[in-house]
Amino acid sequence: MTIDLKSPAELEKMRAVGRLAAEVLEMIGRYVAPGVSTGELDRICHRHIVEKQQAVPAPLNYKGFPKSVCTSVNHVVCHGIPNDRKILKNGDILNIDVTVIKDGYHGDTSKMFFVGAPAEHARRLVQVTRECLLKGIEAARPGKHLGDIGHVIQQHGEANHYAIVREYCGHGIGRGFHEDPQVLHYGEPGTGIELLPGMTFTIEPMLNAGTRHTRLSAKDGWTVTTRDRRLSAQWEHTIAIGEDGCEVLTLRDEER
């Protein structure tokens, strides 16, 4: 395993691209509504990234992925492919996952959106998943270990009777879209690699309302769904480990 510790100059580029990724999620929210297709949301994000930000949408053509963002609705856990036939309806929950490349560096983040007025149980799943992300970020400090992050996420998710998805995880990020280390969302305190200043990685917990088991679409090779078709939620930030804590590089204005 080779973990790339970022220099101050590299971290400045990571901050800049992280702000761009956050901005895409801030921009797209006003378009999320019943009757809109995920294909249309993808086109709006693509135009914003390419034309306004003069950046590159990292998912487009990444290992054959055909679109510029991922849109995961309801029981889709992650990597949902936007298309014009998938029309959002009142009560849906939606994850939009954005990764932007600028000046050779990646910024990766995702957010849950409510379409109209979802049921209370759906809102609660989304809220607890966000709390898991925040607890994971809080645990990310120099001298701590990756297992500490996974542990607090698992503890909070399972205490609220949700299942933690294990097949998909966070990852190192920088010049590469997916770098070392892998960041699991379950684990034991004090295990795994020690966190050092200059590490940059994503934390992106996925929680299921039912069992943790998932299914990968044989048809498109990308879309991951819950095996029991119950709801799933995910939130994601890119963070940098500093000298005395961590910095969220993809923080949105609404979170400041």
Can you describe what's shown?
The chain contains four helices and 15 strands. The termini are far apart. α1 (about 10-30) packs across α2 (about 40-50) and α3 (about 120-140) packs antiparallel against α4. The relative contact order is 0.18. The model has no long low-confidence stretch (mean pLDDT about 100). It has about 260 residues and is an alpha+beta fold. The chain has helices at about 10-30, 40-50, 120-140, 145-160; strands at about 55, 70-75, 75-80, 95-100, 105-115, 165, 170, 180-185, 200-205, 205-210, 215, 225, 230-235, 235-240, 245-250. Strands 1, 2, 4 and 5 form a four-stranded antiparallel sheet that branches. Strands 3-12-11 form a three-stranded antiparallel sheet, with no helix packed on it. A three-stranded antiparallel sheet has the order 6-10-13, with helices on one face.
- Following the backbone from N to C, one meets helices and strands in this order, namely HHEEEEEHHEEEEEEEEEE
State the end-to-end distance: 34 Å
Strand fraction equals: 15-25%
On the 0-100 scale, what is the average pLDDT?
Answer: 98
Q: Residue ranges: pLDDT <50 for 5 or more in a row?
A: none
Cα radius of gyration in angstroms:
17 Å
- Total count of helical runs of at least 4 residues: 4
For the secondary structure, the number of strands is 15
Q: Which overall shape is indicated by the principal axes computed on the Cα atoms?
A: globular
Q: Which class of secondary structure composition applies to the elements?
A: alpha+beta
| Major pleated sheet | 4 strands, antiparallel
Helix fraction by DSSP (H/I, runs of at least 4)? 25-40%
